[in-house]
Each structure stands twice: as C-alpha cells, then as structure tokens.
Amino acid sequence: MTATVEPTEKTELPSVWMQDLTWEEVEGYLAHDDIAIIPVGATEQHGPAGPLGVDSYVAITLAEDTAQRAGVLCTPPVWFGDSSHHGGFPGTISIRTETQIALMRDICRSLVKHGFRKIILVNGHKGSNLPGLVSSVRGLHEDEAPQAIFAVADPLHLARSAAPRIKDTREHHAGELELSHIHHRFPGLIRTERLTDAGVDFQEVFGGFVGDDLFGPAPDGVEIMWSGAEQRAFTPTGSFSSSLGLSDQKGKDYHEHIVGRLVELVEWLRGYTGPLGTVVPEPR
Amino acid sequence: MTATVEPTEKTELPSVWMQDLTWEEVEGYLAHDDIAIIPVGATEQHGPAGPLGVDSYVAITLAEDTAQRAGVLCTPPVWFGDSSHHGGFPGTISIRTETQIALMRDICRSLVKHGFRKIILVNGHKGSNLPGLVSSVRGLHEDEAPQAIFAVADPLHLARSAAPRIKDTREHHAGELELSHIHHRFPGLIRTERLTDAGVDFQEVFGGFVGDDLFGPAPDGVEIMWSGAEQRAFTPTGSFSSSLGLSDQKGKDYHEHIVGRLVELVEWLRGYTGPLGTVVPEPR
Amino acid sequence: MTATVEPTEKTELPSVWMQDLTWEEVEGYLAHDDIAIIPVGATEQHGPAGPLGVDSYVAITLAEDTAQRAGVLCTPPVWFGDSSHHGGFPGTISIRTETQIALMRDICRSLVKHGFRKIILVNGHKGSNLPGLVSSVRGLHEDEAPQAIFAVADPLHLARSAAPRIKDTREHHAGELELSHIHHRFPGLIRTERLTDAGVDFQEVFGGFVGDDLFGPAPDGVEIMWSGAEQRAFTPTGSFSSSLGLSDQKGKDYHEHIVGRLVELVEWLRGYTGPLGTVVPEPR
Amino acid sequence: MTATVEPTEKTELPSVWMQDLTWEEVEGYLAHDDIAIIPVGATEQHGPAGPLGVDSYVAITLAEDTAQRAGVLCTPPVWFGDSSHHGGFPGTISIRTETQIALMRDICRSLVKHGFRKIILVNGHKGSNLPGLVSSVRGLHEDEAPQAIFAVADPLHLARSAAPRIKDTREHHAGELELSHIHHRFPGLIRTERLTDAGVDFQEVFGGFVGDDLFGPAPDGVEIMWSGAEQRAFTPTGSFSSSLGLSDQKGKDYHEHIVGRLVELVEWLRGYTGPLGTVVPEPR
Amino acid sequence: MTATVEPTEKTELPSVWMQDLTWEEVEGYLAHDDIAIIPVGATEQHGPAGPLGVDSYVAITLAEDTAQRAGVLCTPPVWFGDSSHHGGFPGTISIRTETQIALMRDICRSLVKHGFRKIILVNGHKGSNLPGLVSSVRGLHEDEAPQAIFAVADPLHLARSAAPRIKDTREHHAGELELSHIHHRFPGLIRTERLTDAGVDFQEVFGGFVGDDLFGPAPDGVEIMWSGAEQRAFTPTGSFSSSLGLSDQKGKDYHEHIVGRLVELVEWLRGYTGPLGTVVPEPR
Amino acid sequence: MTATVEPTEKTELPSVWMQDLTWEEVEGYLAHDDIAIIPVGATEQHGPAGPLGVDSYVAITLAEDTAQRAGVLCTPPVWFGDSSHHGGFPGTISIRTETQIALMRDICRSLVKHGFRKIILVNGHKGSNLPGLVSSVRGLHEDEAPQAIFAVADPLHLARSAAPRIKDTREHHAGELELSHIHHRFPGLIRTERLTDAGVDFQEVFGGFVGDDLFGPAPDGVEIMWSGAEQRAFTPTGSFSSSLGLSDQKGKDYHEHIVGRLVELVEWLRGYTGPLGTVVPEPR
What we know:
The structure is a homohexamer.
Chain A: H1 23-30, E1 35-40, H2 54-70, E2 73-74, H3 97-114, E3 118-123, H4 130-143, E4 149-153, H5 155-158, H6 163-166, H7 176-185, H8 202-206, E5 223-224, H9 228-234, H10 248-271
Parallel strand pairs in A: 1-2, 1-3, 3-4
Helix pairs in contact in A: 2-7, 2-10, 3-4, 7-10
C-alpha cells in the first residue's frame, strides 16, 4: 500500500486526500471551500473473480476522481460496511449497523467542527450500507449539525440511467458491471480467469418478490433478509449474476458516467444557498 | 378508540389482532401456522388535509386486510417511526433510528420465542422507516434468529407496477394516492375541504438530484437529508405534492393491489421450505 | 381496527387523538393549551379469559375518557411494555427496559419540542412498566426538558382508595377488577366463559415476602424477580387471582373513579404555576 | 476509612465482607452456601443534619448486620445511585438509570458466574433506586441468569408494618426515622445541632397527588418528576420532613425490625427449592 | 464497616470524605476550593494472602491520606473495576469497560456541576482500570467539561522512581509491594501465613513479549489479552509474583512516596492557572 | 490511491492485504494458517511538516512489511482513532472510544468467525488508541472469543530499547522519529521544508507530572487530559517536539527494529500451543 499524492486539477494542494495533507493545507482549503467527500466501502466476498475490497475500491476511485475533477477534498476511506449477509465467506468483515451509524457520525461531526458544510458520502457497497449511512447523517443533521448539508451517493442511483445501456446481462452482486468497474480502474485486481456465470436463482430463493437485476425492472416486491450462512447455501461461489461479460470499456463508461454526475453534484452544492443548511431551528 | 374484533375469513379465531386474542388462542394458532404481520407506521404531519396518523393507518389497514384474507395474525401496531424530518410541524412524534431498531428487535424476538417463523413487517411510512426496519431484522436474523424469515413490505415497492396507472399526478408525501388510500379505508379522516395543490419545488431545493415522484421516473440522483425546520421552510403547508386528485376509487385500486400482493406473499411464505430459515450456521 | 373520531366535550377539535388530527389542528390546540396524555400499555397474557391487549386497552380508555372530559389531547398509544416475566405464554410481546426508556424519551422529546409542557403518561400495565416510565421522564426532565412537567399515572395508585371497596376478592394480574374494567369498556373482549378462580400460591412461590393483593394490605416484603418460564410453571393458566367476580358494575365504578381523579389532575396541572417546570438550572 | 474485619456469628470466616476475604475463603463459602447481599446506596444531600452518605450507610449497616446474623456474605457497597433530583445541592453525586442498570448487571453477573444463586440487593435509597435495581435484575434473570434468584429489599417495604408505630411525625427524605437510623448505627454522623422541622409543602408543590409520608396513608396519586434545581427551590434546606424527633431508640427499633425481616428472608431463601431458579426455559 | 470521621489537617471540616459531610459543608468547601479526589479500585482475587479488596483499599488509603495532608475532599470509593481477566477466581467482581466509562462520567459530571474544577482519579487497580478511566474523563473533558481539569493517578506511575529501590524481587499482581502496602495501612488484612512465592512463568505464557516486573525493565513487547479462565490455568493460586518479601517498612516507604507525590500534585493544581481548564472551544 | 498487490515473500498469494484477495484465497490461507494483522491508525494533525495520515501510514507499513516477511495476512486499515485532543486543528478526524471499541470488536468478531485464531492489532497512534484497542479485545476475548489470542502492538513499546539510541532529541507527537519513519517509508509525504523545533513546554502545561519524551525517562507522574482547543492554545503549530533531526536512516533503523520484533511475535504465535486460546471456561 503506497501513499498516493494525487494533485487535484483545480487546487494547489498536493493531494485530494486529507491523509496526505497537513493541517495547515486543510485550513487553507477551508478558507475558500467547505466540501468534503467520504468514501465508504465494505470488505466482503465478491465471488471467485472479485477481491474482497471491491466495494471499497469503488468508493475510493469515485471519490478520488470526483475530488480531482471538482477540486475538493476526500477523507480517508472507511473500508468496512454492513456485510453480515456475506459473512459465510472467509475474509468478509462486517460491522453492525449501530457501529456504522456511530462511526459515520463521529467522522462527520469532526468535519463539521472544522467548518466543512457540504459533506458527500460516496458509498461503494450499494443497498447494504444505505440504511446505516442514511440513518447516521439524517439524525446528525437534525440534532447536531443543522448548518451542514449531507448527501449520500451510490452507484445504484447515480448510474440509474446509464447502467441498463452499458451492461449486457442482469447485474447483481459481483456482476459484470461491478467487476468491469474495478477491472478498468484497478487493472490486475480482477481474477479474469475466474469469471463465472454462476448466479442466484432469485425465483427459487425469494419467490418473485425480490428483483434479480439491480439496474433492471423490479417486481412488486418486498425486502427479504438472508444470513451469511444462508447465502453460502444458495450461492456457493458467492456470485449473484454472471460476470462473463466483463470489459474495460463497460467499466470506463460506468465510471465516467457516475463521476460526471458526482462532479455535477459538487458544482451544484458549491453554488447552493439554501434552504438546506441555512435554517436554524428555534429553541424548544 | 374501540377494540376491533374482526373475524378472519379463514380461521376460527375471533380476530386477526393478537391484542384481541387470548394466549390460548394464539397458542392454538401456532399449532398449525407460524406467520405474523407487524404493522409499522408513523405519527407525522400529512399536510392540511391528512391527519397525523396517515402512515400508521396505512400499515394497519394493509396488515388487517391481508391477515383476514390470508388467515394469519397481526401484532398490535407500532404508531411511531423515524420522522425527524417532519418535526417542524406540531403533532409529529419521531423516534430515533436506534430506538426503532431496538424496538423492532424486541418485538420480533418475542415472536420468534413463541414459535413464529415467518414475520412480515408492513410499513406504512415509506422510505423513512425502511433503514431502521431493515437494519433491525437483518441483524436479528444473522445473530439471533436464523430459524425465522423476515420480510419488510412497503407500498412504495408493492405498488410499483400499479401506482403509475392509478394516480393522475406526481405522488409524494401527502399526495393524492396516499390520501385517497386513507379516504377509502377510513372515511371521514381526510379533511377533503383542505386538499391542496401545494407541493415542494424539488429542483430548487434539491437540484435535480432527488426525484419528485415516488412512483415515477427517478433521476441519476443521491439522497439528501433535510431537517424538520428546513422542511417547514420549503413547504409551509407540509404538502409535497398535490392532493387535489383524491378519490375513493384510486384509494380502492391502490389498496386492493397492495393487499393482493401481500396475500400472495403470505401464500408463498406458507409453502416455503428454504433455504432461508433452514440453514443453521456452524459454530465459530 | 377503525379510526376513531371522538369529539371532545370541551374543544372544537374532531378527536382527542392526535393521530386523527391534522398538524394545523394540533397547532391550534397549542395556541391555548399545553397538556398531552400518552397511553402506555403492554401486550401480554391475561389468563384464559383476558385478551393479550388488556393493559393497552386500560391505558387507551383511561386516556381517551380523561381527554374528552378535560378537553386535552392524547398521543397514539404505546402497545408494548416490559413483560418479560409473562413471556412464557404465546402472544406476549415484551420490550426491554432500555428500549422502553429510549422510546418514551423520544416521544416526550417530540412533544416538548412542539410546546407541550405538561405530559401525563397513563400506564395500563401497573408495576411492571413503572420502572421504565419513571426512569425515562425523570432523566429527561433533569437533563433536557426542565421546562416541562411529567406525571406517571397508574390505576394501582389512582384507585388506591376505591379498589378495596369495589372488588370482592384479592386482586392481582388478570383478576376480577382488571377484567371487569375491560368488560365494561370493551364489551365482548373478555371471554366470560373462560373466567377462572385459578391463582398463584404466593406463600409457596414467594414465601410471605410478596403481597398477593395489589389493592390489599402488603407484608413487610421485598421484590422478587421471576422469569416467563417460571411464571408458566407456577401459574399454568396465567391467572394470578380469581376473575370469577367479574361484573360490569365493578368495571364502571373502577373506571369512573380513576378517570375522575385523572380529570382532577388535568385541572390541577392546567392552573399550575410552579415551582415545577419554572426553575431553569444555572449553567455549570 | 478503615477495613472492617467483622467476624460473622455463624461462619468461620473472618468477615462478612468479600473485600476482606481471600478468593479461597469465598470459594470455601460457596462449597456450602450460595447467598450474597449487595448493599446499594446513594450519595446525596440529606438536609442540614444528615451527611451525604446516609443512604449508603443504611444499606451497609442493614447488609452487614443481616449477613452476620444469618451467616452469609456481602459484596462491597455501591455508593452511588439515581439522585438527579437532589442534584441542586453540592456533594450529591448521581448516576443515570442506564448506568445503574449496567453496573448492577455486571456485579450480579460476576456473582452468578462464581456460583452464587440467591442474590439480595439491599437498597438504602428508597424509591429512587428501585426502578434501576428492579430493571437490572429482572432483565438479567430473564435473559442470562435463570438459575439464580434475585430479590430487591428496601426499608420502605420492609418496615411497612413497624415504621408507623415507631415514628412520631410524617416521614420523608431526611426525616426523623432515616436520621435516627444513622444516628443509632453510626453515632456522631448526624449533626444533631442542625436538626430541623423544615419540610416540603406537598400540597403546594404536588397538589394532593403525591403523598407526604413514606410510611403513612397515600392519596389516589401519581408520580411527578422534579429536577435537582426545582428541589432546591421548593426546599432550600433539602429537608422534606421534620427531623426534630430523632432518637437513638427509634433508630434501634427501626433497624432491628428490618434486619430481623432480612434474616427471615435469608433463611427462607436458604431452604427454597423452587419453582424460582429451577425452571430452565426451552430453547426458542 | 464503620463510618470514618477523619478530620483533615488543613480544613475545619470533620472529614475528608464527602459521604460524611453535609451538603452545607461541601458548599462551604467549594467557596474557597475546587479539588476532589475519586478513589477507584477493584474487587478481585489477590492470591492466597491478599483479600479481594486490595486494589480498592490502595485507592482509599492513598486518597484519604492525600486529602488529609493537602486539605481537599474525597468522594466515596468505587469498589468495582475492570477485572474480567481475574474472573476465574471466586469473589472477583468485574464491570465492563463501557460500564466503567459511564459510571465515572456520571460521577465526574456531578462534581463539575457543583463547581469542582480539578478532579483527581486515584486508581488502585493499576493498568487494568486505566483504559476505562482515561477514556472516561478524556471524552468528558473534550465534550462536556472543558472548564475542569482531570488527572488519572496510579501507583504504577507515581512510584516509578521509588518502587525499584524499595522492593526486593520482581513485582506483579499480588506481589510483595502491593501486599506490603495493604499490610502497612490495614494491619490484619493480609493473611501473612499464606504468603507465597508462586508466580507466573511469563516466558512460557507470553513469550518474551510481556514484562514480568511492573516496576522493572520491560521488553520490546506487546499487550496480550488473557481471560479469567486462562489466568486460573496459568496461575492456580492467583499470585503473579512472590509475596514472601512482605514487610511493613516496604509498605510504609511505598505509601509515603506516593502520597507525597499526590500532595505535590494537589499543590500544583491548586495554583494552576492554565492553559488547561481555561480554553473555551469556539462554537462550530 | 492505488490498489497494492504486494506478493508476500512466503506464500503463494498475490497480496498480503485481504482487500486484494478473493474469498477463495483467504479460505486457502486459513487451511494452513490462522494469523491476521489489523493496522489501526488515526487521522490527526502532525504539525506543519507531517500529513494528517501519519499514524495510519505507520500502522499500514508496519503491518504490511511484517505480513510480507512472516507470510501472514492483513485486513484493510482502520484510518480513524481516538484523536479528540488534536481536534483543534483542521483535518483531524476523531472517533469516540465507545465507537472504537464497537468497531474493533466487529472486525475481530468477523475474523474469529472465519477461523482466525491469532489476531494482532498494530497500532500507529501510540497511547491515544491503546485504551480503546485494549478494552475492545479484552472484553471480546473474555466474553465471546476465548478460542482466539489477541495482541495489541505499538511502536511505543516495540521500539522501547531501540528508540533511545536512534533519536537525537526528546521524541513526542510529530517528533523526529515519527516523521523520519514516514519519510523513510513514504518518501515525499513529509514537508521537509516545514520541519520545526517548536515543541510543548511540558513543565509549564503539565507541571512535572507528564513526561516530555515518549522514549525517555518518565517522572513520577499522572495522566492529565487535554482538549483539542487547549492543545491548539499550548502548541499553535501542533508540534510537540523538534522534528529538525529527521533523517531517512533514523526512519529505517526504527522501522526495521519494530518490524523485526513483530516478525518474532508472529513466529512465536505461530508455534504457540497455550494456555492462552485453549482454555474453555466452564458454563456458569
């Protein structure tokens, strides 16, 4: 693991990563800007071809590229998420939702204390992290930090329009799109010789009540919980959908689309003047 | 408030509500069935025309009708949800996500202890309750109750196919569909003389990053938090979308669609034999 | 379950229940009054004749009638209480004391935020809920809400003078007085054909250290804990004292006495000017 | 503060206090007995004449004398209780109910782990500690320690029959009975020159809804919370009832009555064979 | 256990212990001073010769003597600490770190509320309590009590220079120095006939990675956790190092050295004017 | 930030980092080994010359090099620690001790679940993280994971013998040794033009009670807490000791010494057969 001193395109700072900056450099940044990105991932199985860090690498590369293009700062990444349902596979490391809520609140509280006022959580773990992330900043904003704006960003929503036209097959955990993304940004990390068309039979496991394509049409459905042990039973490889369609181009298209949208988000936030973040609640 | 002794259509029991049954009656039920429904709502502002209990009444009527048609039992309702973002309006009562997680875990734990094995949380509060509800039962299933199946059901997903064809305008908090639903099932509760076309200017408040129609096409977006005080600033009436199109028929169509799908869920669960709920994790 | 639009006798509002009012109606109420009642019950076994909701129905009817007569508002009810010691019987749903404390604090905090200043918790579950309820509001008042007055009301104390003259036999869990109360207010809910004289032999189970009559003379005693499993062993029916003496008149006398006293409490609070609720602690 | 090596009357051990015994001595005790007493007090104002430790000394002397006479062991005392409502007076040290619950559970869990099976919490702080103490052991017994019996003992209940005939005036916080007890057992601790007839006007502060005599007849009442700041406002001396009637004899009579009853409790527990403590709940 | 009315040498108060003072006396003290000492111990096995209360007695005597010589006040002692690793021996009572943090914060918060501004935690339990104690007051100082100074004092550090020259052999849990200290201050508490040279073979159990002398040279090491069950396996007597060298003189030298240094600490704090305790953080 | 596929010297795996491995590769590793290293750092100011990530980079490089040389695996790093006392400087991100305890327990629990039995936490944040880290794994080992061994490793202790001979001046936060270490391992990260001899006057701020050299002789002292705001007051640059003596050679000597010792720890653990990790506590 090497320190990465990535100059931003738009600032004088030697890196977009706070861990690579001194406090004086961050203080200088805060004199003219107040936006921070927090990459939040997970460490969990991603089938035979994907490394355990897929979700974290997704968050890291989206955060980093957005920050470089938009000229803002990132905090160090959070490598651990809510992954108990993948816990049947070795190497998966899961934190409880309560822990995640506390962790994210502490991180955000520190940022707000220093004067950051627009904070974007870039999630790389799709739906599984969202409950904790949303709960964390929703409560923080209501109770402690009315002066800051919090956004939770996820490829699941940011690539809503683009993903269907990029991918060839249905996309789910460890599918062609997710792995193409990593393959494009972190060449060598995907074990391409281990790509597989193994998937989960959603009809059998979940009736018709859970969609089998994260970017496809969804049934009139419900959310059904499954445990790590159950997951290993219904998908012995850990793959939820085929990854055979992996390609660098798909990863590039997907990445560029999301980063483009995130840059738009930063630009909008930069010029935003309210009402969010400007209404001070009356004392009780 | 009156006790409601509603005979089910399919069982001998005098009510589908556990609060109206004796322990012996529940014990008798458990001798041949193991499904329970928990209605979870909220107490929060629903504009000038909707009473504070809208979300709870939605959950209650969906649970009750499903239970009657499918011959299963309901627990008493949970009237309080995660509503801090509506807290700028008097009468809104919000519980923190952590409280909600603890509360739902305690309720479910009791049910599992008695032998219930398939538990459906019927949410009437749409997206705001989902983080807490999902977090609650996901962790419980992983850590304590591998033998039970938990589903979280919400109109937002169950009416996905039907809502667009029922409603006439975009639908959001306190919109025509939600209020029609209450109007149909609880005549007199909606103040029809106070229906309004007031709504939130999503473009102004959230840029183009948050969808303004819960059942319509969504942008490549993110989740942006807002506080109760901010909400009162950007929608002084509390209405997020027009409720002028309210009609009993819309409410009926919406209700029947969702109940129909919930009954299918119950039937599927009744015949379900795994893998969910049947895999016992190995000791560490 | 039907929505209940119960007009109060003293206000213009269409119901005493906040869930049936709009936020504008609650705001109007707060312009001239600041009292709220929270009914808190339980869902737990009440012997062969009593439904699981007895304690909640007790709280609901006391709150509702008091509110109607005194012209104040009620929040939706809390259906779940601290009932682990009844957990050996199917249908009992218990929440932990910590959960109850958090839940009640969240509810009360919301009320105080809106301007309610005199909050009455009407408990229907007797002694078992009191530790959690008292702990909840005592800490809230000290730490967060010095400007509000909190009272915890319970039939155990409110009927202290009247119960001994109304009842014929010793009264304990699922006894004649409790069931008469429900029988009077919710005709049809008590399975009168299942009334029983089964009871607990307090001498055998608890030595002479626990009183066997909630409204009778008590020994020089202690509190002894018992679990749900133990309870099922020492009272296989769940009945702690005879319910054979059930009568509508007893229920009526008991109910009227308690509601009368609660109305007096509301009147006293309405005119109360301190010192409670008026002393602002000095900053440390 | 000196270590107190108080030989019991009935065992060979050099002290009834575990802190003064070696682990081998406790192990020896556990070979033939399994009863432990935990004294729980408070550190809070007791008027001009009573030291801050009154409640703790009450618990300590009751536990110690009971242990000596009955031949059982005591743990070290817990000096801190739930005293926020006395917090307006310097020297009062209060712990939150949640802290108290956690603390007592940890202590009891350790005892159960070693083989103690009958555990008596002797409270010296009357009603204010009871919610936390009861909540603590009730949950522990249900969830973790079904094999142990827990009793919570308090002078308020143990002296129910005797107190009225011993005392001359109404008795409340820092009253003649409480201070006589300390005066008798810890001569010199009471500042007899500072005894006072200052008291709280319960009618004015609490209407007729709170009793003004802990051992006298009680009204049809409710529990009303008050803060430390409010208490200082309504009783500038901290005294709730006259202590002028203090006498050594009253203290002796009161002490002997309670200890006598506690010894009876120990003897009953020693011979107790169930059902409490012997019913193992079935796995869920 | 007897109340101890120990007059200080430097004040008019009848005792250094708050539990033995009235609130008026504490208020008088606070008119001219603002220092408090909190003795924190443990109840855990100390080998065949040491009673379970050794660590608490250490804290008590250090606190008491320091207070008397320096003219400051002590709170009642905390008898329970973080002792799970000794839990294999009967009589050991351990509280979890989270409980300890909550407990100490509550105690300190009360003191700060009354005006105490310099608070010394005197620990008698050496390294095992330090994580909880430091965590407790570090967070409290940062978040709630910037106006107060907190110090955590421990013989391990206070006797750093003196212990090596006083003791004859390596010193670890239940060693000659610790037991000599108790022997000197609480004659009769040590079972001198049970002194032992039994010890732990640190090389075998911990490799060369954990030092075997708390006051001797330490290896380039790490901290390795052990459980109560493991401890009983690797030291069946509970003794970690020889106690055969016990002597009153060693105890006296050790005690006087530590108390002397604590008195210097009090004197320094008394005259201290900042920066600690005087910097108010800017609002966020 | 780039993914780092660092082959170990002793295994066939393409990386020592689990995030870069697939679950199958981790499963393969667990077939013959059971050791894991968790690098734990902080994000906090390190003076004008050191980046905010210093402590995390220390943990990362120590963990990585140890893993490569000893042939074991690392989890992804934890970038956030207990840094509230540095919170006066922008960019410092602190998590509360309670959050840290929960986070580390969750991570370790996942590892134990998969079969890891010897877990080394490599801390890069010196004393400030130790309370949380030790508390976390001590409780986990006692209560949930008796079968695993946990070690907490820190440069403060691992370089005890070597640091004094490597460094030229006293070493404290952001001192010459810490920055040399980063300079050696991550060339370019230290702003060498901003090295400074600014330091903290420990005598003035802490009397003589806190040592000013982490690797030098320590006084008979205590731990004194300071807040982030206070720190900024007593060291406006954030530097606690001179960093002018920075050199690549010092960093190399320091690094090699610590890694060497960590490799010895791994080797010892690899061959370790008990008693730690092999004693199963008896059921209560």
